[in-house]
Amino acid sequence: MPPRTVFAPYTQLFHLPGTRAFSGAGLLARVPMSTAGLGTVLLVEGSSGSYALAGAVSGTQALCFAVASPQWARAMDRRGQGPVLRTTALLFLVSGLALVAVVLSGAPHWTWFGLAALAGAASANVGSVVRSRWANALPEPAQRQTAFAFESVADEVVFVVGPPLVTFLAALVAPPLGFLTGLVIGVGGALALSRLDATAPPVAPRVPGRARAGVLSPGLVAIAVTYLAIGTVFGAMDVVVVGFAEEQGSSATAGVALSAYAAGSLVAGLVYGIARLPGSLVTRFLATALLFAAVAQALHLVGSLSALIGIAFLSGLTIAPVLVAGLSVVEARVPRAGLTEGLTWTTTGLTVGVTAGSALAGAAVDSWGAESAFAVPALGAALTGVLAVAAWAVLRRPVAEQVPA
To answer: Between 69 and 157, whose confidence is greater?
Structure first.
C-alpha cells in the first residue's frame, strides 16, 4: 500500500481549518518539555559538579509544574485558553531567566530551588491544550485516536531534537545555552498559540447557583497514578543517561541516546495512530502498559554506549502506545467542559513521576555509579505494570460509577 494511502488518516486531520496553525504553534510551545529538565540538570551540574543537586533542582521544577498545571488548565476551561497561555508564557520567561542568573552567579542554593519552583509553577501543559482542541474539532473516536497519536509523535519530535540540541550546546558552547534556547522557543510558541482563539474549545457557560462539576474520578486517578510510575522512568532516564555517557567519556552522546529513546516512541506513535486494534480502550491501556514494563527490563543489560542506544530505541517503541491509550480513556470519560483539566491531571501524574525519578536517579548515580543506576528506570517500569493492573480493575467498573458528583 502506498505511504500516501497508509498515512491518509493523518493528512485528513489537517484538512480542517486552523488545525495546522494550532498544532504547529503547539509543537514549538512544548519544546521546554524536552529541554527544561535536561537543561536544568546540565546547568546545575556544570556549576556545582553534583548530579544529586542537579536532579533535585530539576525535580523541584517538575514537581511545581505538576502542582500548578492542573490549576492553569482549570482556568483555561473556565476563562478561555488565550489569556491564560499569555500569562503563563510571560511568567515562565521571567522566572527561567532569573533561574539561569542565580545559578551562574553562584547565589545560595535556596534561590536555585526557589526560582526552579517558580519556573515550574509558571508553565502550562501545552500538550493538553492542543489535545483538547483536537477533541473539540473531531467528531469520531477513530479520528481522535489518530490526532492524539499525532500529538504523541509531536511530543517525541521535540524529544528527538531537544536533548541533543541541549547537550551539544551545553557541552560545546556553554551550560546555560541549552536551557535558554528551549525557554525562548517555548515562550514564542505559547504566545503564538494564545492568539488562535478560533480553534480554542468554547468556555462552558456558568449557570447561576450551580457549581461546576469536578473532573476527578477513580478511573482518572487510577490512570494518573499509573502515569506517575511511567514518569519515574522518564525522569530517571534523563539523569542516568547523562551520567553514564559522562562515565564513558562522551558526554555529548547522552543526547543521542535520549533521542533514540524518543525516536522509538515516534515510530510507534505513527503506527499506533493508524492501527485499528481490537478490544476496548481500557484493554488497550492495560496491554500497552504491560508491554512497556516488560521491554524496559532490558535496561539492566546496558554496559556500553552502543548497547544503550539500541536498548533505548527498543524501549522507546513502547512509550507512545501506552500514553495514547491512557489519554484516549480519559478523553472518552471526562466531561467536555473540563477536558483540558482532565487531560492535564493525567499528565500531572507523569510529571510527579519525573520528579521522583530524577531525584532517585541522581542519588543512585552518585552512590552506585551510572551503570548500576539503570535499575531505577527499570524498576519504575515494572511498577507501571503492577499499577496498570490495578487501574484496569478500577476502569472495568461502569463509567457512571466513576463520574464525580
So the answer is: 69
Q: Considering only CA atoms, give the Rg of the chain.
A: 20
Of the chain, the end-to-end C-alpha distance in Å amounts to 49
Domains of the chain by range and CATH?
A: 16-200+213-402 (1.20.1250.20)
Has residue 31 got a pLDDT over 60? Answer: yes
Residue from 88, 21, 74 nearest 339 by CA: 74
Residue keyed to cell 542554593? 109
The more confidently predicted of residues 107 and 262 is: 107
Taking CA atoms, 231 is separated from 226, 227, 348, 384, in Å, by: 9, 6, 9, 9
Burial 8-43 (b: 16+ CB within 10 A, else e): ebbeebeeeeebebbbbbbbbbbbbbbbbbbbbbbb
Percent helix, percent strand, percent coil in the chain, to nearest 5: 80, 0, 20
Instruction: Locate 279 and state its grid cell.
Output: 478490544
Closest CA to 36 of 362, 256, 351, 353: 351
- In order, the DSSP letters of 63-100 are HHHHHHHHHHHHHHHHH-HHHHHHHHHHHHHHHHHHHH
Measured in degrees and rounded to the nearest 5, phi and psi for residue 210 equal -120, 125
Beta strands per DSSP E along 200-287: none
Could you write out the DSSP letters of every residue in 278-308? Answer: SS-HHHHHHHHHHHHHHHGGGGGG--SHHHH
Q: CB neighbours of 233 closer than 8 A, spacing ≥ 6?
A: 296, 353, 357, 377, 380, 381, 384
The per-residue pLDDT for 324 is 85
Residue pair 296/318 in contact (Cβ under 8 Å)? The answer is yes
- Number of Cβ within 10 Å of residue 209's Cβ equals 5
**3-state secondary structure (DSSP) of residue 263:** helix
